[in-house]
Specification:
alpha/beta, Rossmann fold, five-stranded parallel sheet, 9% strand
């Protein structure tokens, strides 16, 4: 079959994808408090961080309202009832919410694994009760999978493959409330008899008016809705930020309450009468206050400036983590589609662009590192061509199956995140290394043969810059600060003190680290010229929603119609697609199209001009 031309592809999108024109959604709009972010952050990194943390106030305020609404107890009761009767708990999502689903699964499993190690004879029966269903499977945790979220049938099939049933509870999590994959999981679970919660972040009236597939879910009385709208994102459309943060806060609260009820049932004692949502709110309020403080922002700004220099010079940055590995991996993965930077590189791929950043865990093999990170074995999507054809038809099957062939277990293990990958990515002058450390990780930083100490000492000796990010309660935070000052005073230290209210899942720690990492990566990319005002102009148009977003940005920045912008976008995608397919570095299609439309340039000159403008940022 002849490959369609860029114009034909654009025409097909304009004709058939009208339900993916999402510019009216609140999450796609521009936050008034971050409108001048790029100017502020380039002038002063600490002030730019202040803007980002100011928008995070929307999360705190929305969670405060959630606590006041009193819904958490009812959701907990439903979850506990199903679990006690042999049911399971599913979290489904795509992109940022898919990575959230994997994180929630990992946090639950980690708690029960620790209980079992401490001698709790009942823990084993609870560990394997949660399942994540991410568009594209576990491969998508480390690298975005193109096009998966556009197919309702894929969501249906992935959750069906896990045997969802009438005993189960399903949280279908979608930042915008319109994601086809997630909506597919909700319908499949409902038809199987499961209790379904639809978790989303846009006003009902806007979704009902503009998105038919969302309206159908909202109008289904058997699906319980959890609307967590906070407002626009700090970066337009970047729902990895505030939308996913509020979802993490609410779902961690539900899991914390569920665990406490299960433990009470095991002992035959009544559950503690503490106000768990109120305690989570206290931890969130206090960690946000510390993030917004002048001292913390100045510390984090030094790390932003270090990473900016490294990336601007074409050098590499390594992260080292253990307890917070899934948190850092989530943030690093999301940088690629948001800011058009190279994804993690497979160890044996000589053609792919070098990853700007990478993550290593303190385990001998990559296979063990993945197991420790996920708290289970990876679960890839591995469908044959006939299955894909049955799901989405002949026309799209072959292309989508080519993508699926490259996201299986073998491909996951090519990302060498264990100690067996460290030698493949040596550091030198101009590079950087940063340890992400919690209270439990502290001995591995303080001891000479500890993982963090060893890796950072190697980096220092090789001439690389170093950083230490610590997050934890007051006394360990003080201890970490004093140690780093004596051992490596030149290291960029960031010390985030969290409040510990005795909660099992440490929500304040998780939420604080998420907001901090989001701000670190966003502010760095803003200073590198990948954001204009608060518009993500380097977004990668890898699915229908992002094609629409890219088209709208081109239209706005170049002053042309939506249709003309769409044609220009598909021409730009065609130009960069060979490099995209090979994993090589490539210019942002949005910026490329804008340069061509503004200045009437051929592609090569448009690319050169785009990079010149970024270099001058």
């Amino acid at each position: 079959m002849k490959e369609p031309t860029p114009r034909e592809k654009a025409q097909k999108f304009l004709t058939e994808a009208t339900q993916f024109r999402l510019g009216a959604l609140l999450t796609e709009s521009f936050h008034p408090r971050s409108r001048n972010l790029s100017d502020i952050a380039r002038r002063d990194a600490a002030e730019g961080l202040g803007v980002l943390f100011d928008v995070d106030r929307d999360v705190v305020e929305r969670f405060r309202r959630f606590v006041a609404e009193g819904r958490a107890a009812g959701i907990r009761d439903t979850v506990v009832s199903r679990l006690l009767n042999g049911g399971r708990l599913f979290f489904t999502g795509c992109g940022s919410t898919g990575r959230l689903s994997i994180q929630l699964d990992s946090i639950w499993r980690d708690f029960w694994q620790r209980r079992q190690a401490a001698g709790d004879e009942h823990a084993a029966q609870w560990e394997d009760r949660t399942f994540s269903v991410m568009a594209g499977g576990d491969f998508a945790l480390i690298k975005a999978v193109e096009g998966f979220e556009d197919f309702t049938q894929f969501g249906r099939r992935q959750i069906r493959d896990l045997g969802v049933s009438q005993q189960d509870v399903v949280f279908s999590i979608t930042e915008g409330g319109e994601t086809s994959f997630v909506i597919g999981t909700a319908w499949e679970a409902l038809e199987a008899g499961a209790k379904v919660y639809f978790v989303y972040n846009n006003p009902d009236e806007i979704l009902r008016e503009h998105v038919i597939r969302s309206r159908e879910v909202l109008d289904e009385p058997r699906i319980e809705k959890i609307n967590l709208t906070t407002g626009p994102m700090a970066i337009s459309g970047s729902t990895r930020m505030q939308a996913t943060t509020i979802q993490l806060a609410v779902l961690l609260t539900v899991l914390e309450m569920t665990i406490r009820e299960i433990l009470a049932r095991q002992t035959g004692q009544p559950a503690e009468a503490e106000d768990i949502p109120g305690l989570v709110l206290k931890e969130l309020e206090q960690v946000h206050e510390r993030l917004a403080s002048e001292d913390l922002r100045q510390e984090l700004a030094r790390l932003v400036e270090m990473e900016e220099r490294v990336y601007r010079s074409g050098r590499r940055n390594n992260y080292y983590a253990d307890r917070l590995a899934i948190d850092i991996l989530t943030d690093t993965t999301e940088r690629s589609p948001t800011f058009c930077v190279p994804a993690f590189k497979k160890f044996d791929d000589p053609e792919a662009a070098e990853s700007w950043s990478f993550l290593f865990l303190p385990y001998a093999t990559t296979e063990e590192a993945w197991q420790r990170l996920l708290k289970r074995r990876p679960r890839p999507v591995e469908w044959d061509l006939e299955t894909v054809r049955e799901l989405i038809g002949e026309e799209a099957a072959e292309r989508q199956h080519r993508i699926i062939r490259d996201i299986g277990m073998k491909e996951i293990l090519r990302f060498r995140i264990g100690l067996d990958g460290v030698s493949i990515r040596p550091l030198g002058p101009g590079d950087s290394a940063t340890a992400i450390v919690t209270e439990e990780d502290l001995p591995s930083l303080e001891q000479e043969d500890g993982f963090f100490r060893t890796r950072l000492d190697e980096a220092r000796q090789a001439g690389a810059d170093t950083g230490v990010v610590f997050a934890g309660p007051e006394e360990p935070c003080r201890q970490a600060r004093e140690f780093v000052a004596g051992w490596a005073p030149e290291a960029r230290g960031v010390f985030l003190q969290t409040t510990d209210c005795g909660l099992h899942l440490k929500p304040g720690l998780r939420l604080g680290v998420k907001m901090m990492l989001n701000a670190l990566s966003t502010c760095t990319m803003v200073r590198l010229g990948r954001v204009m005002g608060n518009v993500m102009i380097w977004v990668v148009p890898s699915n229908l929603k992002l094609i629409d977003r890219s088209t709208r940005y081109i239209s706005q920045l170049a002053g042309v119609s939506y249709e003309e912008a769409c044609y220009a976008l598909f021409e730009a995608i065609e130009y960069v697609s060979p490099r995209m397919a090979a994993g090589k570095a490539y210019p942002a299609p949005v910026g490329l199209a804008v340069m061509r439309l503004r200045h009437g340039l051929p592609f090569e000159q448009a690319e050169q001009r785009l990079y010149e403008e970024v270099a001058g940022a």
